[in-house]
Design goal:
- By secondary structure, the protein is α/β, with parallel strands linked by helices.
- About 35% of the residues lie in helices and about 35% in strands.
- It has five helices and nine strands, in the order H-E-E-H-H-E-H-E-E-E-E-H-E-E.
């Protein structure tokens, strides 16, 4: 697939960042290139409209949820293209008002995500987006927030999936990634 190969050629690999033994996959060069950024958004929206929506019960996406922080970069654009609302998931203490929270494990301890408690209505169809899935912990926590508010996650979308970690296995809905990274 030409668009996937094109996007993959733009992503940068930073060895030993943020710590030794971690290979950081940097999507920011895609965002700096308007053609690449448009290619990414068009690819994701096409996937949603041609694959996700036809398989869903309601035949539409009501809400796009973006994870802190890179999900904020692509989520609102996808939501606008779909005619859906955008809802951010933030780290604990960053959102005003009444919030629901979910805790997830990271490689060096636990962290928490929050979502405003009136952000999703019961029964709404939700797509959750983020830049990367590794172990799946943060995406799973976002799915738990959607579920607490009565929403239905119909798919998780990622730019990159670290294949050997199999993070999609802990999710409660199908997952799609544009780029599958093997290392």
């Amino acid at each position: 697939m030409a668009d996937v190969e094109y996007l993959q050629s733009i992503i940068r690999l930073h060895p030993d960042f943020p710590k030794k033994g971690i290979n950081f996959l940097d999507i920011l060069p895609i965002l700096r290139d308007p053609i690449a950024f448009e290619t990414l958004i068009t690819h994701l929206v096409h996937h949603i409209t041609s694959q996700t929506i036809p398989k869903s019960l309601r035949k539409k996406v009501d809400v796009v949820v973006g994870l802190d922080a890179r999900g904020f970069l692509i989520g609102p654009i996808i939501a606008l293209r779909l005619g859906a609302s955008f809802v951010p998931v933030r780290k604990r203490g960053k959102l005003p008002g009444d919030c629901v929270s979910a805790t997830y494990e990271k490689e060096y301890g636990a962290d928490s995500f929050e979502m405003q408690s009136d952000a999703i209505l019961p029964g709404q169809s939700v797509v959750i987006v983020d830049d990367l899935i590794a172990t799946g912990g943060s995406a799973k926590a976002a799915g738990e927030l959607v579920q607490k508010l009565g929403g239905v996650t119909i798919e998780y979308l990622f730019i990159i999936e670290i294949m050997f970690l199999k993070g999609y296995q802990c999710l409660d809905a199908p997952a799609y990634s544009v780029i599958q990274h093997l290392d």
